[in-house]
Design brief:
With about 70 residues, the chain is of the alpha+beta class. It is built from 4 helices and 3 strands; from the N terminus they run αβααββα. The radius of gyration is 16 Å and the shape is elongated.
Length: about 70
């Protein structure tokens, strides 16, 4: 498999990217606009992002359970 086809398989839609990190597609578009995420035009109009760049935006956080009801 050549490098171009490997890179193309790494490109995902904004909808898929948003679902991966549990945000709205508008947030993905904002991240592209601010340069936090690189966007690619496919076939002249479709916008795609790299799967690994989206995953790199995820930062683990500690969840503290207090054990009580709110």
């Amino acid at each position: 498999m050549d490098r171009t086809s490997i890179e193309a398989r790494n490109l995902i839609s904004l909808k898929v990217a948003a679902a991966m990190v549990d945000v709205n597609t508008k947030t993905i578009r904002n991240w592209i606009a601010t340069g936090d995420l690189e966007g690619f035009r496919v076939n002249g109009h479709l916008l795609r992002v790299k799967r690994d760049q989206v995953l790199a935006l995820i930062e683990p956080t500690a969840v503290v359970a207090d054990g009580g009801a709110a």
